[in-house]
Amino acid sequence: MAFDHSKYIPFQPVRKTDRRWPDQVIEKAPTWCAVDLRDGNQALVKPMTVAQKQRLFDLLVKVGFKEIEIGFPAASQPDFDFCRKLIEEDRIPDDVRIQVLTQARPELIERTYQALEGAKRAIVHVYNSTSTVQRQQVFGMDREGVKQIAVNGAKVVKDLATRYPETDWTFQYSPESFTGTELDYAAEVVDAVTEVWRPDLGQKVIINLPATVEMATPNVFADQIEWICDKIQRREHLSVSVHTHNDRGCGVAAAELAVMAGADRVEGTLMGNGERTGNMDLVTMAMNLYSQGIDPQVDMSNMAEITDVVEACTEISTHPRHPYAGELVFTAFSGSHQDAIRKCLAYRNDGDKWNVAYLPIDPRDLGRRYEEVVRINSQSGKGGVAHVLERDYKISLPRWLQIEFSQCVQREAETNGGEIDSHTIHRLFEDRYLAVADGWRLSTYDLHRDEEGVNATIKFGKPAVELKGHGLGAVEAVVASLQDRYGISVAVEAYDEFALGEGTTANAMACIRTVVNGEVHSSAALAEDTTSATLQALLSAVGNHVVATAEAEPATA
Ligand code: KIV
Ligand code: ZN
Predict the structure, then answer these.
(1) Which residues lie closer than 8 Å to 450 by C-beta, 6 or more apart?
(2) Are 175 and 181 spatial neighbours (Cβ–Cβ below 8 Å)?
(3) Which ligand 1 atom lies nearest to the CA of residue 35?
(4) What are phi and psi of 149, to 5 degrees?
(5) From ligand 1's centre to the CA of 350, what distance in Å?
(6) Ligand 2 center to residue 33 CA distance, Å?
(7) pLDDT at position 557 over 50
(8) Distance, CA 251 to ligand 2 centroid (Å)?
(9) Per residue in 233-254, pLDDT tens?
């Protein structure tokens, strides 16, 4: 059998009895390091050109990242050239620290320093893989041998830095594949490296712990981070960084839990581009903090620009459901969601804290519009349809008409199988409720009240039909005249009239639901005053019945 789970070895978590991180709450943003131009770039089908790298670098700076890994210059000539370009063209703001990656090999470290010559400040990031699988199967080396690679690399990094005293250096070490490394051994290697670098004597040092491959649930990663933070020497002089990948789909969760467990710094990429299933997504993690009222220390307000630039540079499109950035993430199609959102937005006052059902953050904070929130398809209900008419056409429907009209919209959506835009909804409303049958347009009306009620005279159609009737109110009087004239029974079941909001030519709208000879006919009308609107709506409803009946009857000779 090919699909055989028994072939896999369950991850053995660290046995921890003094776990503290579950009680921690993140209250401030970690130090961010964007690795789009290195880890992200290494994962692309078509690595970025220098122009694309420049564009993405400028975006990262604009968003506010202060540490940016720009490449692997000893391994790639374009990366080397890009590094030189940034330095020689003075394109690195003073508060930004570039970072470059190198393997722990002397000749590569030497070349790395050449790439960085003249930088005001920089992070030299040296790594070697420490995992059991790589020691056994890739390098054929024991623990001591692999530790020596790290120590030798650290020594070369330290020695060569003295050749470039004009640069403010930070050293970074990653035991690559940390999640697949025995914890006590990872701590031993890290200690050996910091013994060389001596952060306690003033050297800036970052220890970066990568989930090069995400191998377990995020709580296990948090345990590993808390364990190692407790164990390593010189902890208070170090910046502990995490670099998570997303193999199990939990890259962001693992980084968040790692921060709760003591990590100071987080590496990731915008939108999570990176090897295999990607790196930890900086957009998601930063916005998660933002949605908790925490300053993320980066500005994502122009999300459209972020997605545009990332897409252009990586040639990977953004998933429509990507947290915070996808086209559909602020859109509700479902009727009950639309209804709740509509009510919460109406309930809100300017300056209130954000507390809107189904919208974890205000779409406007990311440059999105409320117009995108409610979109209609066959899953939508009366609330959504009413919201669209109200929002785009200032038409507020009474509840009974919302129910009736939304069924009509739903039928249309089921027939066309997709989304129904606001223009189509309005057209359906016009065709179904506002259209006036030939010969049924109101031209004048005259109402007189006496002790017994109202005497109404109406004229409609061309040539004009004039009708007179009496009733307790205007509607009843006109109903009486219509019953008389056409020999039909007319009952008014529901009737609403209201003034319209600004931005329309008509001032009033009326909606009426009648039962004519046992058949339901609903209509609406727009007019300059509420009485005209009401009488027109009534004429339209009755007219629809009369016209339909005449059409259905065979012509007599
Ligand atoms: O995923 C990884 O381990 C890396 C290291 C080089 C930090 O990208
Ligand atoms: Zn990585």
Answers:
(1) none
(2) yes
(3) 8
(4) -60, -45
(5) 45
(6) 12
(7) no
(8) 11
(9) 999 999 999 999 999 999 999 9
Strands (E) in 4-145, as ranges, are 31-34, 67-71, 97-103, 121-129
Any binding-site annotation on 245? yes
| Tens-place pLDDT, residues 525-534 | 999 999 999 9
Ligand 1 is surrounded, with C-beta below 6 A, by: 39, 101, 127, 174, 176, 208, 210, 212, 243, 245
Global pTM reads 0.86
pLDDT tens across 204-236, in order?
999 999 999 999 999 999 999 999 999 999 999
User: Average pLDDT, stretch 471-487?
Assistant: 96
SS (H, E, C) 384-441: HHHHHHHHHHCCCCCHHHHHHHHHHHHHHHHHHCCCECHHHHHHHHHHHHHCCCCCCC
Ligand 1 atom with least separation from CA of 279: 1
* Least confident stretch, 404-408, 503-507, 543-547: 503-507
Per-residue pLDDT at 554: 59
Bridge partners for 440 per DSSP: none
> Helices then strands (H, E): number in the chain?
17, 14
Q: Answer whether residue 317 is part of any domain.
A: no
Residue of the CA atom closest to atom 3 of ligand 1: 212
Say yes or no: 280 and 340 in one domain. Answer: no
Among the atoms of ligand 1, which is closest to the Cα of residue 42?
8
Kindly report the protein residue whose alpha carbon is nearest to atom 2 of ligand 1: 212
Q: Which ligand is nearest to the CA of 134?
A: 1
CATH number of the domain within which 510 lies: 3.30.160.270
pLDDT of residue 370: 84
> Quick one: DSSP state of residue 72?
-
Structural domain of 361: 335-434
Structure tokens of 199? 């952060």
- Can you give the pLDDT at residue 454? 96
Rounded Cα distance between 127 and 210, Å, is 10
Check if the beta carbon of residue 38 is closer than 8 Å to that of residue 72.
yes
**Please, what is the average pLDDT of the chain?**
95
pLDDT in tens, 45-74: 999 999 999 999 999 999 999 999 999 999
Examine the domain organization and report whether 276 and 358 are in the same domain.
no
* 128 annotated as ligand-binding: no
Taking the centre of ligand 1 as the mean of its atom positions, its distance from the CA of residue 303, in whole angstroms, is 27
- Model pLDDT, residue 107: 98
Is 243 known to sit in a ligand binding site?
Answer: yes
- pLDDT greater than 90 at residue 272: yes
Count: domains in the chain: 3
Same domain assignment for residues 90 and 223: yes
